[in-house]
Automatic annotation (TrEMBL):
The chain crosses the membrane at residues 6-23, 30-50, 62-81, 93-112, 157-178, 190-210, 257-285, 306-331, 364-384. Residues 153-385 form the ABC transmembrane type-1 domain. Belongs to the binding-protein-dependent transport system permease family. CDD domains: TM_PBP2. One of its GO terms (biological process) is transmembrane transport. It is a multi-pass membrane protein. GO terms for cellular component: plasma membrane. SUPFAM superfamilies: MetI-like (SSF161098). This is Sugar ABC transporter permease. InterPro entries: ABC_transporter_permease (IPR051393), MetI-like (IPR000515), MetI-like_sf (IPR035906). Keywords: Cell membrane, Membrane, Transmembrane, Transmembrane helix, Transport.
Amino acid sequence: MRTFPLHALLSLGALLALGVYAFRLGFLPWAWVGAGLGLYALLVLWGLRFGRHHALLGLGLFAYWFPPLAFLAPLLFALLFGRGLRQKEQAALYGWALVWPALALLLVWHVFPTFYAFYLSLFERVNFLRPAAFAGLENYRILLQDPLFWKALGNTFWYVVFTVPVGLLLATGVAILLNTQVAFLGFYRTLYFLPYITALTAAAAVWRWIYHPEFGFLNWLLGTPGLDWLNTPKGVFALLLEPLGVQPPGFWAGPSLAFVAIMVMSVWHFLGYQVVILLAGLQAIPKEYYEAAELDGASFGQKHRLITWPLLSPTTFFLFTLGLIGAFQVFTQVYVLTPTGGVLQDTLTLAFYLYNKGFRDSDFSYASAIAMVTFLLILVLTLIQRRVLERRVNYEI
């Protein structure tokens, strides 16, 4: 016997409630909300075939005046008449009821803004102060011809290449050392984790003083007074090859000294998080493997190359994926250390350029186009990474 899909109505009611709120805030046209109300009404009418008591579901149609009713009406119906539902139907209903609050947060803060950003990118210079004309894909055409966009993309590429593998290798080495039985082990673990729990803006402000050309600790330590770390736009490869008389052109000169300084600060800040995750992975590896390797005469390097690295691959794959996604969104430390994007925009990143266009120039349509291109780049690179690296991941211990 066919039954009424109450859990489907619950999901539709949750979406309808979110849609009404979005309509009131001006983020959604009335046509979408009206379509949701119409579909909800059709499901309620269909429910009348299973009994007159299904008319109680019609309370959700008052969602226009009180949005939570669209979600609460099916729950109220289940509380009153739930005993008449089969066990499978009850499980589906209450499962959806428990999942939807978390799912709603994802929809409100991630999914809906993504679609809304794409919607804004199709208009000409949206600033929410005047009506904007529809421009289609014009913003994307301009974006592909924008030299600052390509500059930001190149800088972001260097940031990913330098920080993700270097940070992961450094964190792996530290985690291996912290996984041994040494004195004051808890103190060392806390010491490495402290930078990560420090507010990124505060940490970046401290590092700005460390890089100070006259009073900075780094210049005092290296004996290089006057070296302006955060205002040197010359590429590091060009600086290294300069004594040899080689001058790499443009992009191949490498990231600027200022951007390398930001990368060093970023690796330092996120090292503690990676170390804690890697420590958890290391402690999941059975000690018997290392004991057997020692009996076979394996050296320290051979044990970690043949045992630790393969069995730690799920953890390193996880951190590499998160590192790639986070590196493409780097903003805070760049903004604090170099508020103007560097001397020659040498520290400008995609997220920083998006911020400038949206909140400095009040061009939210162009900023949305940058956001969508960044999203597609992250998505494509993550899928490629998963396709290439996941086959080398060993999930069996």
